């Protein structure tokens, strides 16, 4: 770990504190929005991580666990719960018979689109996103 030797200015501390505050506010907003649409925050994060995976609309459980920063075991449990709710589906991985691919269902996509629109509006409102 690298430590800064020169004292930091008050402006730097204020900037970092404000940044953390805005992240926390957005996360609080996001968690409440997910719950208001019948999802847990983790379920919403899972849907977004699958649909937003770079270059494709499916992921392996291992990739998903990395994106969500949870253990593989916890991720499989979350996938199971989302699958039971009809939000995602598993399909065989044609490149690896030991693995499956996770995709968002039409039902999951409908909820995700609604939540994503709400989140984009909040980001615009807070001026963190410029069109």
Beta-strand content estimate: 5-15%
Q: What would CATH call the class?
A: Mainly Alpha
The CATH topology comes to Arc Repressor Mutant, subunit A
Distance between the termini: 36 Å
Let me know the largest β-sheet.
Answer: 3 strands, antiparallel
- Report the mean per-residue pLDDT as an integer: 93
Tell how many strands the DSSP assignment holds.
3
- Alpha plus pi helix count: 5
Question: Rg to the nearest angstrom?
Answer: 18 Å
Approximate shape: globular
- Oligomeric state of the chains present here: single chain
Helix/strand/pairing category: mainly alpha
CATH homologous superfamily placement: Winged helix-like DNA-binding domain superfamily/Winged helix DNA-binding domain
Low-confidence stretches: none
Succession of helices and strands: HHEHHEEH
Structural features:
131 residues, mainly alpha, Arc Repressor Mutant, subunit A, 5 helices, 3 strands, WH-like_DNA-bd_sf, DNA binding, MarR family transcriptional regulator
Summarize the structure.
60% of the residues lie in helices and 9% in strands. By secondary structure, it is mainly alpha-helical.
Topology:
Layout (H helix, E strand, L loop, with lengths): L9 H27 L4 H11 L6 E2 L1 H8 L3 H13 L3 E5 L7 E5 L1 H20 L6
Antiparallel strand pairs: 1-3, 2-3
What does this structure look like?
The mean pLDDT is 93. The chain contains five helices and three strands; from the N terminus they run ααβααββα. The protein has a single domain (13-125), classed as Arc Repressor Mutant, subunit A (Orthogonal Bundle). Helix 2 crosses helix 5 (106-125) and helix 3 crosses helix 4 (72-84). It is globular. It is mostly helical and 131 residues long. A three-stranded antiparallel β-sheet has the order 1-3-2.
């Amino acid at each position: 770990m690298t430590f800064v030797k020169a004292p930091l200015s008050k402006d730097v501390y204020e900037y970092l504190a404000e940044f953390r505050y805005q992240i926390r506010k957005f996360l609080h907003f996001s968690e409440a929005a997910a719950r208001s649409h019948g999802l847990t925050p983790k379920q919403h994060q899972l849907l977004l991580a699958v649909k937003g995976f770079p270059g494709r609309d499916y992921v392996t459980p291992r990739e998903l666990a990395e994106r969500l920063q949870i253990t593989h075991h916890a991720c499989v449990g979350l996938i199971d719960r989302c699958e039971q709710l009809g939000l995602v589906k598993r399909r065989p991985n044609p490149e690896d018979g030991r693995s499956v691919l996770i995709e968002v269902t039409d039902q999951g996509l409908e909820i995700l689109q609604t939540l994503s629109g709400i989140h984009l509006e909040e980001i615009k409102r807070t001026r963190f996103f410029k069109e």
